[in-house]
Amino acid sequence: MSDDLKLSRRAVLAGSAAAAAGTLATQARAEGDPLITEVQEWASGLGEGVDATPYGLPIEFEADVVRRNVPWLTADPISSINFTPIHALDGTITPQGCAFERHHSGAIELRKEDYRLMINGLGVSPLVFTYADLERFPRENHVYFCECAANTGMEWAGAQLNGAQFTHGMIHNMEYTGIPLRTLLNEAGYDGATEGRWVYVEGADASSNGRSIPMEKALDDVLVAFKANGEALRKEHGYPVRLVVPGWEGNMWIKWLRRIEVTDAAVESREETSKYTDTLADGTSRKWTWVMDAKSVVTSPSPQAPITHGPGPLVITGMAWSGHGRITRVDVSKDGGITWETARLGRTQGDTKALTRFYLDTEWDGSEMLLQSRAMDETGYVQPTKAQLREVRGLNSVYHNNCIQTWHVNTDGSAENVEVS
Amino acid sequence: MSDDLKLSRRAVLAGSAAAAAGTLATQARAEGDPLITEVQEWASGLGEGVDATPYGLPIEFEADVVRRNVPWLTADPISSINFTPIHALDGTITPQGCAFERHHSGAIELRKEDYRLMINGLGVSPLVFTYADLERFPRENHVYFCECAANTGMEWAGAQLNGAQFTHGMIHNMEYTGIPLRTLLNEAGYDGATEGRWVYVEGADASSNGRSIPMEKALDDVLVAFKANGEALRKEHGYPVRLVVPGWEGNMWIKWLRRIEVTDAAVESREETSKYTDTLADGTSRKWTWVMDAKSVVTSPSPQAPITHGPGPLVITGMAWSGHGRITRVDVSKDGGITWETARLGRTQGDTKALTRFYLDTEWDGSEMLLQSRAMDETGYVQPTKAQLREVRGLNSVYHNNCIQTWHVNTDGSAENVEVS
């Protein structure tokens, strides 16, 4: 075996400036490091028994990996938006405990026993389902991302929030178990031969958050869901039942789902007129901008996840998603979009409208970087630059900003949110 | 639209004895049910803000969906086994918070800063990795099940534990992020041209729980993992780093992974001789029984998840898995294995050595059932009956019981653990 060969990468790990010394340092640790040579307290006795946490929480050392809000972002009497700590996560699944929240009148407590779901409207017999009724219908499992339409909204006006959690953290990705909405519409007698071309969906909270969904989507992949990542939905995600509208903006994923009305036209509710429409440069608005276009972000390194080592091997990672289907490719740039390298995609076993993890296993030379990622989806769509997006959409909107994000990485490994022209 | 058509299933939902009345009851609720007709307290004001739970827990109404132990099962000074509440879960992902624990000297607290992983032995240069070092190697994401070899072990002697959580709950299924072990072995210079044919792996806890793994497996799909379901491993699952040995018994998935030694032969440690070998009827033992064979269990209905409604539509669900690869088919019997119906499989997007959810959407006629499920995997292997397994393996073992499980469902919907001859 060649010593040169076997030491090559290890040497680089210790820093490009002193390869040989680095190698020795790594090997010497075993001799001089008390964490290796001495019996530690944790190897000397009994640790904690299984009674300690019937339902467990993260270890105390991970106490910073939590949802966080930005107080000035919402003027509500109680804070109504927080953000997933995406800078500290890896893989694709978002644990419910740190999956972002967005409430329009707070998170309510609703017992399964008190839960009712009404279906009424055009061409259907009015029906009311209890939670126990819902458990008797055939159900499915799917992994989908849920992204707030306002995710990255502050970036329209410039680089204001210094962290991937805050610029891109209004997203989560879970395995949902639920009943296809078409099953319940069929149960109520909907047969397609009526004037019912939309459904209006609302929640049991004070805001009700009513939204109109075209019947074509309602009959396609919308789920009436009651489990996420295997267990019951959390209170803050709509316990006991929420709507899952794959690939479409999170505001339509009605929590504490109370009613589904078949209508002949869109209701034009508050949540789809004064809110969740996109105001353009000339003051007019785009509406029915439901689909979340392809988007990606580098989560590490990023302002909250700086590089903590010297030059040498560096894993650049992030996530990509598209409301139109599968992510087919992600490119990464270290120079603000001048040159690009194609990243390696993680698990891609067929989930559509779900987060895709990407990795660029690279060598960092220790110099500054302008890190970007650029997603492509199965429709051929390519994630736009911020300049391209502003040219079409102006600066007046807070919704549907899917532009390429830039992190400026300094020579000391720290990073900040910047714009490149 | 035909009223007969549109009411057919709804009618059945209300019970086969009074279809028309049942339909009316479902429809009348909208008129007479204050939960529908009156504005409820939770729709009248503000719910909880997002500051309430930076890291969330399940809602209080789900307080029974927790890990539970069986005090008489372990004689340790602290309880060392608990069980995943599989009867209450759906889909495939197991949340870390309720994923079973098995400790040999308790769960220890080990900071990332104090973490060291040594690789040494035949044909490698001794190396020590810090946690920060590990973060610089290319990593992968995979969903795998982890099952304790003793799962279902009490069933060898008969139907002793009345609940799927206790008979089959020493299993969980998570999305792991980690580095292929082969990457780290290569880093240490292992090139295959040595007498190193095994690795001996051990943890940082007092038990150290050392196990021998053939090099062929070590170079195949074993991961040195640091994330599960997107976030850091929990303390009780080996924070900050554990071994993931896909499809093989959980005891080999070393937690708090401390050392990997390349050896010429198996170490024949305590954990692979006096424990984790299978004692046969004649007193001799099978050893190196690493792979978890194909297995399944109905999780609902089951003793802890009784049927709470009358005759009519019933969803029978459960999970199946195989250490040899993919589940290709699951059959369900209602009559103790005399007749079988093929179940519908949930997500099957390519994950191998992972849990597969199955559903049988059926009609319950209200009579007693002897519910069973039978899994088949891509090798053609069929899950055996308890009698078949006992014939080959006797009654002396506690390990590797993958027999078909039977639940006796009574006319009132309650269920209990039974054996059928």
TrEMBL record, chains A, B:
InterPro entries linked to this entry: Ig_E-set, MoCF_OxRdtse_dimer, Mopterin_OxRdtase_euk, OxRdtase_Mopterin-bd_dom, OxRdtase_Mopterin-bd_sf, Sulfite_DH_SoxC, TAT_signal
Database matches in SUPFAM superfamilies: E set domains, Oxidoreductase molybdopterin-binding domain
Domain Moybdenum cofactor oxidoreductase dimerisation: 286-406
Organism encoding this protein: Vannielia litorea
GO biological process, one term: sulfur compound metabolic process
Keyword presence, Metal-binding: yes
Reported cofactor(s): Mo-molybdopterin
Protein name as it appears in the record: Sulfur dehydrogenase subunit SoxC
The UniProt record lists the keyword Oxidoreductase: yes
Organism domain of life: Bacteria
